[in-house]
């Protein structure tokens, strides 16, 4: 059985959804990301104190993209095509989610914490939020003629993109998601595996409303 260090609604939720999608049993280890220092149990597996961490037969796997890829391959999930162009595109969009979208939100969260009330009028904060908006505008363009980011079939990239989208609610109305994007997020979150993860983590998915 797997162990997953997670924080509700954070990027670790994509791993939780994928474990549900692939029918895997998991022991969920809730991490308190507000705590300093982090729990010794989490630090033992990840000295950075971040989630997700997957523990597999006593061995530790960190980094969301690596964990998602490992789980898709191990359980032969169609959420990551086996080879060729389809796989390359799924990896492209997984990298987009993990290495462009996630860090863009990370910068905005960081600035929000550092600036406090001044964030509301800060040009630096505005620039950070604009950089997130650009990425969602790109997603909206991509989704004009297809139901999922890579085409007609859902991939693991859609799951991570959908998890990250819900973080937009932390920034009031500063980030606008397009109509196609909202339909897409509803499509992804309506999957039983996603609904189960939302319920288990007690997360409300608000951004597609
Ligand atoms: N590159 C890492 C980033 C993980 C990450 O930033 N996780 C966030 C939650 S979404 C976290 O643990 N934040 C707390 C912190 O950075 O201290 C990955 O993709 O797994």
How would you portray this structure in words?
By secondary structure, the chain is α+β, with helices and mostly antiparallel strands. It folds into two domains: about 1-75, 3-Layer(aba) Sandwich (Glutaredoxin), CATH 3.40.30; about 85-190, Glutathione S-transferase Yfyf (Class Pi), Chain A, domain 2 (Up-down Bundle), CATH 1.20.1050. The protein has eight helices and four strands; from the N terminus they run βαβαββαααααα. A four-stranded mixed sheet has the order 2-1-3-4, covered by helices on one side. Helix 1 (about 10-20) links the parallel strand 1 (about 1-5) and strand 2 (about 25-30). The longest helix is centred in the middle third of the chain and has 32 residues, at about 85-115. The N and C termini lie far apart (about 35 Å). The model has no long low-confidence stretch (mean pLDDT about 95). The structure holds glutathione. Glutathione (GSH) binds near residues 51 and 52.
Keywords:
alpha+beta, Glutathione S-transferase Yfyf (Class Pi), Chain A, domain 2, 8 helices, binds glutathione, Glutaredoxin, 209 residues, 4 strands, 2 domains
């Amino acid at each position: 059985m797997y162990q997953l260090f997670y924080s509700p609604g954070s990027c670790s939720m994509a791993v939780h959804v994928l474990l549900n999608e692939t029918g895997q049993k998991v022991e969920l280890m809730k991490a308190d990301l507000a705590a300093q220092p982090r729990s010794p149990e989490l630090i033992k597996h990840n000295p950075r104190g971040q989630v997700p961490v997957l523990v597999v037969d006593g061995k530790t796997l960190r980094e969301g993209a690596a964990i998602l890829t490992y789980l898709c391959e191990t359980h032969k999930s169609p959420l990551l095509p086996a080879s060729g162009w389809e796989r390359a595109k799924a990896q492209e969009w997984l990298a987009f989610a993990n290495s462009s979208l996630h860090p863009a939100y990370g910068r905005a969260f960081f600035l929000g914490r550092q600036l406090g009330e001044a964030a509301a009028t800060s040009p630096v904060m505005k620039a950070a939020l604009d950089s997130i908006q650009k990425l969602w505008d790109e997603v909206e363009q991509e989704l004009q003629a297809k139901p999922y980011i890579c085409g007609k079939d859902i991939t693991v990239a859609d799951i991570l993109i959908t998890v990250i989208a819900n973080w937009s609610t932390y920034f009031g109305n500063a980030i606008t998601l397009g109509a196609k994007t909202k339909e897409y997020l509803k499509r992804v979150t309506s999957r039983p595996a996603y609904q189960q993860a939302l319920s288990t983590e007690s997360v409300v998915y608000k951004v597609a409303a």
